[in-house]
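S.,

As promised, the flavin-adenine dinucleotide run. Input:
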Amino acid sequence: MLVIGGGPSGLSAAVAAARLGVRVRLVERYGFLGGNLTAGLVGPCMTSYSLDGSQQLIRGIYEEFVQRMMALGGALHPSTIPAGSAYCGFIVYGHDKVTPFQPEAAKVAAQRMCIEAGVELLLHTMVVDAIVDDRDADNPRVLGVVCAGKGGLRSVRAKVVVDCSADGDVAHYAGVHTRQGRESDGLSQPQTLFFRVQNVDDQVVEDYIRAHPQDFRPFASIVAKATAEGRFPAPRRGIGLYKTMEPGVWRINTGRVLRRNGADALELSLAEVEGREQTVALLDFFRDNLPGFEQVELRDTATQIGVRETRRIDGAYELTLQDLHSGRAFEDVVALCGYPLDIHDPTGSGGGTGGEGLDAANIYQIPYRVMLPRVHEGLLVSGRAVSATHEALSAIRVMPPCFALGQAAGVAAALSVGNRASPRHVDYADLRRELLAQGAYLG
Ligand SMILES: Cc1cc2nc3c(=O)[nH]c(=O)nc-3n(C[C@H](O)[C@H](O)[C@H](O)COP(=O)(O)OP(=O)(O)OC[C@H]3O[C@@H](n4cnc5c(N)ncnc54)[C@H](O)[C@@H]3O)c2cc1C
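Predicted complex:
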């Protein structure tokens, strides 16, 4: 089988399937694994616990990945990170028990888990098309993909393809119907180029933020004044900043590029340029305006701008805000989550839920069917491109749920290959049994 994309969902899918004895090839466009964990410099991993922080919901491969990073000295266990700490950007709601980690540890842990499971890595390779048997228009079947890399174009066939590209690339090339953005105007969440800074006086930053509880977001009053005077370089109401495990080094999630389609190369290019200019301007702003940042230096910027939202497949089931709000039970549940709605305003500086007053329950469920395209056979779509509304996706798009979904997709794909049945016909009882055997928690 083939897994496309080596981010949280792809690496979990590949490891889960390979451990069931299936031959797995993982195709990744960069020269290392991790996706947003590494190339995006995104972190910390948001909560893997219930919203109230009382129960760890996402275990299995995610927990093992965290333990592997810890053994490398590159992560702190989420059970030790309370809401409101500097590691979670001083945010309380939805931020209890996040996982701080170092991207270099993530790269090593990811590749070791894949190699030890027997996954064949095909790095520096971009999938540019899908091979589809569509002689029966009512029952199209994905047979493989076309890749571009050193050596040119090549086709790679597989019994099952798991699309973990985050943009639903394979699904899109195969003709699966996809949706993008919010219902009202099709606009997606903004993009952000993550960067890290060094030489920050950690104690001064913490002391200032703790002394200003009326600032709902860190440094909000300083940002508000600068915004009113036209001096703040991004549409944001505060500074998104996350302490790392290295003294003086913080991740910055503050830039914001609006109205660019992350699944279009030209628009993505414009977003990269704008994101980099924002980074330069933000650094100057930090140095001149933020206590503790007087001597700040740029450590690095992400390999690519972070894309929060692009295509979502039209799947056998579309997860909704109402499902999350009610904690609806599904007969084919494959993941439990507690991260709440998290919609960054597609048109401006707002944050918040955007869920018309509704938010997710303390624990909610995700069914297997969100990964099954409505008609195409031979294909599963996991991670950020699953079938969910704009609102529901805002919660389940963060990295721990993507690990859980990836693991479920990998197990289902392996069962599908083993039984010579399409992923649509995988027996849920088998899927559940294997997921539990691999350490997943399903309630
Ligand atoms: C700005 C920003 C901030 C965020 N903040 C957080 C946070 O603090 N904590 C958190 O937990 N989550 C956060 N998220 C969400 C999270 O990072 C992503 O939603 C999550 O990583 C999605 O996982 P994935 O496996 O679906 O995709 P990705 O992590 O995007 O991985 C996809 C992989 O597929 C590869 N790929 C893509 N297309 C192709 C192709 N055609 N051929 C070959 N390879 C391909 C990519 O190179 C990449 O390695 C944030 C996201 C953004 C953008």
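Residues 195-301 form one domain. Residues 4-10, 27-30, 35-36, 39-40, 42-46, 126-127, 164-167, 169, 192, 253, 306-308, 383-384, 397-399, 402 surround flavin-adenine dinucleotide (CB under 6 Å).

- D.
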